Amino acid sequence: MIAIYFKELKGYFSTLTGYLIIALFLLVSGLMTFVMDSDSNLLNYGFADMTPFFMLLPWLFIFLIPAVCMRSFTAERELGTLELLITRPIAAWQLVLGKYLAVFTLVLFALIPTLIYVISIGILGEQSFNLDTGSTISGYLGAILSSLIFIAIAIWCSIIAYNQIVAFLLAAVICFFFYFGFEGIAGYLNTDNTVTALGMKYHYESMARGVIDTRDLIYFISVAAFFYLLGVFTLENSIDKS
């Protein structure tokens, strides 16, 4: 598993892929939070608070993470190296976990430079660094936990798809549904929070506002584990059939 992890990580940073992904993420997030006149603009928000940035993050993740993960298994299949990996003494769960952790590391590398936004807002406030530290920490924790689900979904799509574009589109659609879909269904059916709570948006926004609830933590970890195990099961099935 460790070998797979470092192989994938090296694949991202031995070429321009990893750097371009991080640069694109920082460029778009920087423009949206400081330059463009939008709801996510921190300067227009009027408070020394990172909430607009955290509200923007899921939109970026919905497209960024599927783009990173779309080649995880489809590229291996296209190059014929998946069969080679399968013949080695490595379990399916280790193969999936190695690739999963490599993408998660890339996401962390993309998030770390955004701490500059926190410093900038702290300096620009009427009182220097009069930030709500609790909501900032909670927001970053929510971002990290939500990325766990998006990565698990995207890798599973890479396992079931035989084309990188199909893997990307399928992952983006499922990620979008898991984040916004249940809220839309609840609004259409005019139901209470029971249906809304099945979606990521309900739990993520709670954390972005600075509330850390055990139920939110359990939700993120459970859904991420479900899609990770689904990916392992799907890969094992494809190995057995081959």
From TrEMBL:
Its main location: membrane. The chain crosses the membrane at residues 12-36, 56-74, 95-125, 137-158, 165-182, 217-235. It holds the Pfam family ABC2_membrane_2. The keyword Transmembrane helix applies. The keyword Transmembrane helix applies. One of its GO terms (cellular component) is plasma membrane. InterPro entries: ABC-2_transporter_component, Motility-assoc_ABC_perm_GldF. Keywords: Cell membrane, Membrane, Transmembrane, Transmembrane helix. It is a multi-pass membrane protein. It is found in: Cell membrane. GO terms for molecular function: ABC-type transporter activity. It comes from the Bacteria. PANTHER family: MEMBRANE COMPONENT OF ABC TRANSPORTER YHHJ-RELATED (PTHR30294), MULTIDRUG ABC TRANSPORTER PERMEASE YBHS-RELATED (PTHR30294:SF29). This is Gliding motility-associated ABC transporter permease subunit GldF. It comes from Nonlabens ponticola. The lineage of its organism: Bacteria, Pseudomonadati, Bacteroidota, Flavobacteriia, Flavobacteriales.
